[in-house]
C-alpha cells in the first residue's frame, strides 16, 4: 500500500533530520561548552527529565493530541535545545534541556504507536499477519534512522574542519588523557580550550536548527493522522496510570534477580556517558581538536549499529554468557589503554580504534541486556523493562553529573569497578537461573524476540515510555 509506505518514510526521514542535529550536538556538548561543566550538566538534565517524562506524560499527551501532533510538538522541544546552544549559558541550556527531556518520551512513544497502528491496519487490508508487517515497518525506520549519527557527526567535522589548525603545545598535551587538567589551565592562554570561531559555531547550529525545522515541516505537512482500529481503541481506553506504572516498576525490585542486575543495567548508561562526555573532551578535543570529534563518533556509531545486528543474530549460537564476557574484556582493555595512554597527534589511529571497540562492546550490552530481561522476567515484562530504562538512564545521569568534578582516571576506576561488580552479580543471576531450571546451562535458551527499538539503544533511545500499545509492539517484534 503506497499510502502506508509514504507515511513510514515520512516518519523515518523526519526522525533522521531531527536526530542528525541532536546526535551531532550531543557529541559536542562536553567540548563546546566546557566552562564549569555546562555541556555535560545539560546532558545530565536531559536524561533526568526523560526519566520523569516517561513515567506519566506519553499516554496522556498521545490520547489528547494523537500520534502525529505529539510527534510534531515533541520535535519542537528538540529544536528548542538547538536554539539554546546559540547563546549557551545556565539560563538557556538547562531549561531547554528540561524541555527536550520532557518531549523525548512522548515523541518515541507516539512513533512506536504510529508504526504499530499503521502496521496492523495495513495487515488487515492486505490479509497479512500484523506482527510481520509491523516488523517490516520498524526495519525500514531503523534502516533510515540509524544513519543520523553518521550525518550529524560528519556535519560538525566538516564545518569545524574549516577552522585554522594551530600547533598544540607540550603543556596542552600534558593535560590530555587520564590526568586531564584542562579546567586548571583555563585561565592561561596556552591552556584555554581550543574552540572554533563563533562564526563556525553559529553556522553549525544554524544547520542543525534548520534540519530540525525541516523535520517538523515534513511531518506536519506530509504525515497522515492515524487512528486505531476498534480492537486497539478498546485497549487504549484505560492506559496505565502514573501510580500503577510507578508502583509496578518498584514492586519488580522484590525479585532478587532484578536487584542483582541493577549494576549491569547502570553500567550500560555509565559506559555510553563516559564515551560521549569524557573521551570526546579529554582525549579527542584536547589532543586533536574539536573538528575530529565528529569523525571519531562516526566510527563508534558505525560499529555499534552493525554489531547490534550481528550479535543479535549470533547470540543463538554462542549464548549470552560468552558475549557478556567478550564485552567485558573489550571494555576492560579499552579502559586500561585509556588509563595508561598519553594521547598525541601522531597516535591518530588509536583515537579511532578505541571508539570502534567501544561500539562493539556497546552493541553487546544493548542487545544482550534486553534479551536477558526478556528471558528472566517474561511474566512481568513491562515492569522489568521499566526498570531497565530507569537504571540505564540513571547511569547516564550519574556519568554526566560527576563529569565536571572528577579527573578522567578516577572516572575510569569508577566505571571499571561497576563493570567488575556487574559481571560478578550477573554470574550469580545465571547460577540462580541454572539452579532453578535444574539444567547445567540456560545460556542458549531462546530469548523473547524484541524489536530493533529496544536493541538499538543510543543515548536518545533509552527512555521509551511504558505506554501499553507500543510496549506490546516491543514484545511481538523480532530481530531484523
Which structural class is indicated by helix and strand composition? mainly alpha
CATH topology: Growth Hormone, Chain: A
- Helix and strand succession? HHHHHHHHHHHHHHHHHH
Strand percentage, roughly? under 5%
What proportion of the residues is helical, as a percent range? over 70%
Mean pLDDT: 79
Structural commentary:
The chain is mostly helical and 480 residues long. It has one domain: MFS general substrate transporter like domains (Growth Hormone, Chain: A, Up-down Bundle), CATH 1.20.1250. The protein has helices at residues 2-32, 38-84, 93-126, 130-145, 148-160, 170-174, 198-222, 230-236, 242-251, 256-260, 262-287, 293-318, 320-340, 348-376, 381-401, 408-437, 452-455, 468-476. The model is unreliable at 184-193, 233-237 and 440-480 (pLDDT under 50).
Topology diagram in text:
Layout lengths: L1 H31 L5 H47 L8 H34 L3 H16 L2 H13 L9 H5 L23 H25 L7 H7 L5 H10 L4 H5 L1 H26 L5 H26 L1 H21 L7 H29 L4 H21 L6 H30 L14 H4 L12 H9 L4
Structure, briefly:
This protein has 480 residues and is mainly alpha-helical. Helices cover 75% and strands 0% of the residues.
Provide tags for this entry.
mainly alpha; disordered C terminus; 18 helices; Growth Hormone, Chain: A; 480 residues
Amino acid at each position: 500500500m503506497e499510502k502506508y509506505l509514504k507515511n513510514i518514510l515520512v516518519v523515518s526521514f523526519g526522525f533522521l533530520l531531527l536526530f542528525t542535529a541532536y546526535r551531532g550536538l550531543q557529541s559536542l556538548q562536553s567540548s563546546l561548552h566546557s566552562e564549569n561543566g555546562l555541556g555535560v550538566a545539560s546532558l545530565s538534565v536531559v536524561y533526568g527529565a526523560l526519566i520523569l517524562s516517561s513515567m506519566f506524560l506519553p499516554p496522556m499527551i498521545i490520547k489528547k493530541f494523537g500520534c502525529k501532533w505529539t510527534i510534531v510538538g515533541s520535535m519542537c522541544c528538540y529544536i528548542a535545545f538547538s536554539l539554546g546552544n546559540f547563546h549557551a549559558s545556565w539560563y538557556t541550556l538547562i531549561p531547554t534541556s528540561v524541555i527536550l527531556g520532557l518531549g523525548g518520551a512522548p515523541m518515541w512513544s507516539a512513533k512506536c504507536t504510529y508504526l504499530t497502528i499503521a502496521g496492523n491496519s495495513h495487515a488487515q487490508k492486505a490479509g497479512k499477519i500484523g506482527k510481520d508487517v509491523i516488523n517490516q515497518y520498524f526495519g525500514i525506520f531503523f534502516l533510515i534512522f540509524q544513519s543520523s549519527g553518521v550525518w550529524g557527526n560528519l556535519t560538525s567535522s566538516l564545518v569545524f574542519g574549516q577552522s585554522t589548525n594551530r600547533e598544540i603545545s607540550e603543556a596542552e598535551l600534558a593535560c590530555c588523557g587520564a590526568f586531564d587538567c584542562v579546567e586548571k589551565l583555563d585561565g592561561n592562554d596556552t591552556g584555554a580550550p581550543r574552540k572554533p570561531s563563533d562564526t563556525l559555531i553559529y553556522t553549525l547550529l544554524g544547520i542543525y536548527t534548520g534540519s530540525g525545522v525541516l523535520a517538523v515541516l515534513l511531518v506536519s505537512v506530509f504525515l497522515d493522522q492515524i487512528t486505531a482500529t476498534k480492537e486497539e481503541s478498546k485497549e487504549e481506553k484505560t492506559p496505565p496510570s502514573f501510580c500503577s506504572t510507578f508502583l509496578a516498576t518498584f514492586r519488580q525490585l522484590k525479585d532478587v534477580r532484578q536487584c542483582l542486575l541493577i549494576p549491569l543495567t547502570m553500567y550500560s548508561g555509565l559506559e555510553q556517558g563516559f564515551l560521549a562526555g569524557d573521551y570526546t573532551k579529554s582525549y579527542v578535543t584536547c589532543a586533536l581538536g574539536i573538528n575530529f570529534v565528529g569523525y571519531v563518533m562516526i566510527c563508534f556509531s558505525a560499529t555499534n549499529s552493525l554489531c547490534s545486528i550481528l550479535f543479535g543474530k549470533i547470540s543463538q549460537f554462542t549464548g549470552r554468557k560468552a558475549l557478556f564476557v567478550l564485552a567485558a574484556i573489550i571494555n576492560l582493555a579499552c579502559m586500561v589503554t585509556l588509563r595508561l595512554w598519553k594521547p598525541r597527534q601522531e597516535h591518530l589511529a588509536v583515537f579511532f580504534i578505541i571508539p570502534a571497540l567501544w561500539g562493539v562492546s556497546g552493541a553487546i550490552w544493548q542487545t544482550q541486556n534486553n534479551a536477558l530481561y526478556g528471558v528472566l522476567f517474561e511474566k512481568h515484562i513491562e515492569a522489568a523493562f521499566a526498570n531497565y530504562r530507569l537504571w540505564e538512564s540513571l547511569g547516564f545521569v550519574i556519568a554526566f553529573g560527576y563529569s565536571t568534578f572528577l579527573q578522567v582516571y578516577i572516572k575510569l576506576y569508577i566505571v571499571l569497578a561497576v563493570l567488575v561488580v556487574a559481571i560478578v552479580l550477573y554470574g550469580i543471576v545465571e547460577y540462580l537461573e541454572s539452579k532453578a531450571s535444574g539444567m547445567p546451562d540456560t545460556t542458549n535458551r531462546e530469548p523473547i524476540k524484541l524489536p530493533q527499538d529496544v536493541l538499538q539503544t543510543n543515548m536518545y533511545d533509552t527512555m521509551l515510555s511504558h505506554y501499553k500499545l507500543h510496549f506490546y509492539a516491543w514484545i511481538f517484534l523480532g530481530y531484523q
